[in-house]
DNA sequence: GATGAATGAGCGTTCATTCAT
DNA sequence: AATGAATGAACGCTCATTCAT
């Protein structure tokens, strides 16, 4: 694909991210998306088979960026607690600093696409070596530093508060400064850590 | 309003809850809703100004039921921890046992309506005596049995995991038996309780 | 269905017949059809699931009218030749006097619908008592007054010239007065009659 | 025009014939046509002003091939009947053996183009020495071996059955073996021949 | 000359809402 | 009060045609 084409595709994905985040999938007409991306409607369909495929492609892109952000600066020599706090702090900052990405992901995971994608990722993690860094920590330390609980429950305890709080932050209901972020990260650790520790 | 009218309105709300939960706001046409409620399309507009107002009214109804379910069997003589566990367990069972209500609320809170509603409730709680039982516990015990954190952060730590897990349960990704429910409730408490305790 | 509804449905079918005949299925937008029928676009979809179903319904209506016209004044006591000439003359006059119907049918039989419909009618004729009057004559007299030929071949010899000529007539290439009509009908009989007779 | 250009043009016409025959004019996008012809979309517009002109050009090509096939092996010393049977048998075999050409011509003659083309050919035949071989026979023998009828009527009687039958053959409704072909040709002759003969 | 990415008018269809009955 | 037929703006998507490369 030519550089110009790649630019165009990126412009479409960028416009899609903004519009989907601000208005939702349904309320964002392809025509408006085209306008915002400075392309013709028809051009979108050169790059993406239909609206669904555009959404999927955008998800892949956003998820990729998220995964990269999460593992930035990861250090396997640290304690489990410190590794967890590092990862989850990365996650919080990324979502807080990328409200469009956060809103898009929230929508995506609540749509019919989302459920299947989630299940798919879960199976993938079980089946392949490619593992989310969180899952690795959970599996390695479950029953030790971390409570012996089903993976999904650990996920819920670790991520649930984050998503909840970011949502409120973006809604302007609460301010997330560095102190609050540290407190929440801490709270998440408290929720999953084995009490004996 | 005549008893017959009340019945009709209830039928509409019931049908709306089912359809919205199963298909989403957008994918649930008013015509289908009317069919399912055994009323004419026009009748819906007698009780609700438009689709948005129907959604709002349904929210009020569902939220009312939820608030009632949460405080069932509450006992102010118990310890803070026990009161919290009681409330949150009520919450979990209600949401788990009422998937339509849960799915509707999730959608609602992720829609443009949701943000405003949340802010409104917050202000209401501050301004009036009518207070959510959770807020009462948080305000009463913050800095004592419970961490000294902004209310929104406590909310996030307490409710975030619940919502996350119920979602996965309804998607069939995890089974929530009584043991798991107790473990999650416990985890939520661990997240907010003061470590000294 | 209320009388008003029936009127509306008829208006739609009438407009469809005219537009399809004059512009073809593809070139006749639903919006134009709605305008011509003095209804809203959406109303068409109350009566017909989609454009295809409208076309099918129109075919049924036109075919019905055609079948009725063909058998008008049929007299089983006449000779095979006279019965045939009567039927085919009816056919000619109907098509000549109903150019919209003729053009619509031509299009229909040349579309993907048409082939299947034709085969279906053929099977129906074989399987049930309901028989086209032409088929009855052909089957009864094949090998006697009429040549012993496959049914399809008799059809071709009898109808082929008619369709060909009507087409040219509507195109203004030839004038079909009563004399010409009689001559063509005669020619068709000559094509299928047994020479010995 | 360079040899390479001629090749390209032929490839486009070949692809057009196949696609138009199989899918119809409307359902055959220029892009698909370009792909099948192994040229760029833009190239089609170098050889043909627009889609209509491509259709026209294809018609000329197909018609040319048809006219040549019809007169193959013509022998002016034979009887009128034998000459007619020879020509019409040529016609039948060509159409039967070239289904793409037949389907294309049928579509063409049923489209807005067709009418005008037909009228144009008629005028041409009258105005110039270039005459269809059938027209020559009809004009020479009308009132003698052949009925005294308007040219268009003779056309209808002679060609109508052929087109009708080929259509059904391609639709799989009837098998045209050599016997059937001879019988149809015979029938066509019976339709136009003077009874006295 | 040849290409195919880009375009946007125009399509079939849906659905929230209205209003005559 | 209750109905549902009627409406048309708005949607996702296609494709003949253009034009920069």
Can you walk me through this structure?
4 copies of one chain form a homotetramer. Chain A folds into 2 domains: 1-48, Homeodomain-like (Arc Repressor Mutant, subunit A), CATH 1.10.10.60; 61-192, Tetracycline Repressor, domain 2 (Orthogonal Bundle), CATH 1.10.357.10. The termini of chain A are far apart. Chain A is built from 10 helices and no strands. Chain A is mainly alpha-helical and 197 residues long. In chain A, helix 2 crosses helix 3 (41-47). Chain A is elongated and about 60 Å long. The interface between A and B is large, with 40 and 41 residues. The structure holds a DNA duplex (21 and 21 nucleotides).
For this entry, give a set of tags.
homotetramer, 197 residues, mainly alpha, Arc Repressor Mutant, subunit A, 2 domains, 10 helices, 0% strand, DNA-binding
Number of domains of chain A: 2
Shape descriptor of chain A: elongated
Residues in β-strands, percent of chain A: under 5%
Number of strand elements of chain A: 0
The protein's oligomeric status is homotetramer
CATH architecture of the largest domain in chain A: Orthogonal Bundle
List the helices and strands and how they pair.
Four copies of one chain form a homotetramer.
Chain A: H1 3-23, H2 30-37, H3 41-47, H4 51-71, H5 80-97, H6 99-110, H7 112-127, H8 133-141, H9 151-170, H10 178-192
Chain A binds a DNA duplex (21 and 21 nucleotides) through helix 1, helix 2 and helix 3.
């Amino acid at each position: 694909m030519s550089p110009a084409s790649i630019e165009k595709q990126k412009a479409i994905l960028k416009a899609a991210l903004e519009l989907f985040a601000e208005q939702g999938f349904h309320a964002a007409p392809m025509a408006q998306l085209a306008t915002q991306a400075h392309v013709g409607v028809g051009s979108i369909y050169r790059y993406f088979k239909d609206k669904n495929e555009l959404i999927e492609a955008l998800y892949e892109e956003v998820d990729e960026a998220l995964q990269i952000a999460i593992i930035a600066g990861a250090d396997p020599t640290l304690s489990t607690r410190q590794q967890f706090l590092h990862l989850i702090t990365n996650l919080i900052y990324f979502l807080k600093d990328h409200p469009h990405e956060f809103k898009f992901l929230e929508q995506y995971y609540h749509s019919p696409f989302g459920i299947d994608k989630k299940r798919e990722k879960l199976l993938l993690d079980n089946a392949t070596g490619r593992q989310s860094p969180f899952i690795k920590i959970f599996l390695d330390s479950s029953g030790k530093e971390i409570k012996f609980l089903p993976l999904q429950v650990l996920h819920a305890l670790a991520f649930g508060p984050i998503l909840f709080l970011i949502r409120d932050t973006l809604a302007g209901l609460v301010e997330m400064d560095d102190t609050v972020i540290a407190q929440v990260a801490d709270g998440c650790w408290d929720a999953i850590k084995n009490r004996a520790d």
